[in-house]
Amino acid sequence: MESKDFNAEIDWFEIVKWPIGSKQGLHFDMAKNHTILSSIVYLNDNFEGGQTYFEDGTVIMPVTGRALFFDGKYHKHGVTNLDHGTRYNISCWLKKG
What we know:
The chain has no helices and ten strands. The chain has strands at about 10-20, 25, 35-40, 50, 50-55, 60, 65-70, 75-80, 80-85, 85-95.
């Protein structure tokens, strides 16, 4: 298998605080036309609920330091109800570098 270089730059990012009761329904990211990837970096995991889920039933358990990369303009995704604690993450869109 041939290895290919992948260059990307941050297009947009924010640090997100999710308090108890927060959730987000299934959605597509309203990213820019040149955005190639969406990513989520989980900054903590000392909370209950708040998993990232996808329309196909895939559920990602937040783990401190884990980074999730996907095409947010193509894959519908959301966040389950945060039942206890506070979730912090960095949401980021990437573009070709």
